[in-house]
Amino acid sequence: MEPVNFSEVIAQTDVEMQRLGWTIDQGREHLIKNYGKRSRTLLTEVELLDFLQYLYLVSQPTPTLHEILIAKIKVEMQRLDWITDQGQEHLKNYYEKRSLTLLTEVELLDFLQYLVSQPTPPLEILIAKINVETERLGWTTEQRQKRVKNYYEKRSLSLLTEFELLHFLQYLAPQSASLTLHEILIAKINVEMQRLGWTREQEREHLKKNYEKRSRTLLTEVELLEFFQYLVSQPTIESSTDFDAEYEEF
């Protein structure tokens, strides 16, 4: 028997749960009642396939192709961690429409194929996003470790697979505010530069030398994370007295 691709099957259950309008609590209640487990990631291959088959057979109106494509697109956008604004901007630029529901089936299929072709964000970015989300939710380190241990049976984020990180982020994201990782990293970089006493000229020289860019707003999330980690690794020095005044204009 060919091994089950857990990430693919769980993505299919996501589609079916969205089609049925199930909430996370409804899904969890079903798993506890029928399998004695709180998460799909804890199911065996047989249990996971049984759950998917159950969702397929639930007595609900058969979805249209339009609805199926929209549900699959939402799953892919979650995988890529696209925010609503990114999706709307793409629709406006490529289809001159503001909503998925306004796209034709051909356009939906084209958009889905585009999303599927995009690589999943690097693990470092996923971990950084999870850290940002848990910080903003006010979670302690112990709370985060407890969640990782209870749901994934692992001791730290660094031991999670790509799918498990995406699953954890998907759980956290609906509960958080709307700031992006890009905005959070820029804010954290500001703090580190103030700690180091860096001027705008020093920053621009570093960015130009290492990334061939003049401003941190032009950096990708990967580059911002790398720049932030570089700053954090530098020892604290006495801050310049006129640094704060200069940075108010940045």
Quaternary state, please?
A: single chain
Shape: flat
Structural class: mainly alpha
Distance, first to last CA: 60 Å
Helical stretch tally: 13
For the record, the count of structural domains works out to: 4
Task: Please give the number of β-strands.
Answer: 0
Structure summary:
By secondary structure, this protein is mainly alpha-helical. 65% of the residues lie in helices and 0% in strands.
Helix/strand layout:
Elements: H1 6-20, H2 24-35, H3 45-57, H4 65-80, H5 84-95, H6 105-116, H7 123-136, H8 141-152, H9 162-172, H10 181-196, H11 200-211, H12 221-233, H13 243-247
Helix pairs in contact: 1-3, 1-4, 4-6, 7-9, 10-12
Walkthrough of the structure:
With 250 residues, this protein is mostly helical. It has four domains: 6-57; 65-116, no CATH class; 123-175, no CATH class; 181-247, no CATH class. Helix content is 65%, strand content 0%. It contains 13 helices and no strands. It has helices at residues 6-20, 24-35, 45-57, 65-80, 84-95, 105-116, 123-136, 141-152, 162-172, 181-196, 200-211, 221-233, 243-247. Helix 1 runs parallel beside helix 3 and helix 10 runs parallel beside helix 12 (221-233).
